[in-house]
């Protein structure tokens, strides 16, 4: 991924999360306080605004987006989701382009942050249930063709997110709703799928140099 593809990524994240804010709030209302979409849309807008006019290289754009995202959102979700961008940016520091290995190292960092800061484990019905299997899959396929590898990563994340429907939450606000939110998908996990889906699309976009 080069600098222009990274800028496209943050642009498209912003567009997607603004358009789907209400749907994510609806998902969150079933298991939490109903503001997940609003929080992420605010963070994605800040990330886009921070990167669209930046002259920084690709990895530094991720760091800039992470800081802007966290500043705009605050709270646990701001820290945990910005950790995805921060991890990828840190792993590619000094590089003009990002590789799948940088993404793997960055997402692995984010998994560690979620486990430490969020005190979550796989199976607790959190964003980790999508991110952890995505990282495992990326480790397995990162030497493959990039487009195919990222497609498989997205599939692994979606499988993990879908599995949260059958889980009773052991962490977060979801544990306080009826049956721990069982029967509802975790909105954080589904948002991870969206982040990775858009990453895949931008990584493969043949027109990225025009953005």
| Overall outline | globular
CATH architecture call: Alpha Horseshoe
Q: How far apart are the termini?
A: 13 Å
Count of distinct strands: 0
> What is the name of the CATH class?
Mainly Alpha
Which structural class is indicated by helix and strand composition? mainly alpha
Helix coverage percent: 55-70%
CATH topology descriptor = Serine Threonine Protein Phosphatase 5, Tetratricopeptide repeat
The largest sheet is: none
Computed CA radius of gyration, to the nearest angstrom: 16 Å
Say which CATH homologous superfamily is assigned.
DhaL domain
User: What's the number of helices?
Assistant: 9
- Number of domains as seen in the coordinates: 1
Strand content: under 5%
User: What does the average pLDDT come to?
Assistant: 91
One letter per element, helices H and strands E, the order comes to: HHHHHHHHH
- Stretches where pLDDT is under 50 for at least 5 consecutive residues are none
Q: What attributes does this structure have?
A:
single chain; mainly alpha; globular; 211 residues
Please sum up the structure shown.
With 211 residues, the chain is mainly α. The chain has helices spanning 3-19, 21-29, 36-51, 58-73, 75-91, 100-117, 128-141, 146-163, 187-204.
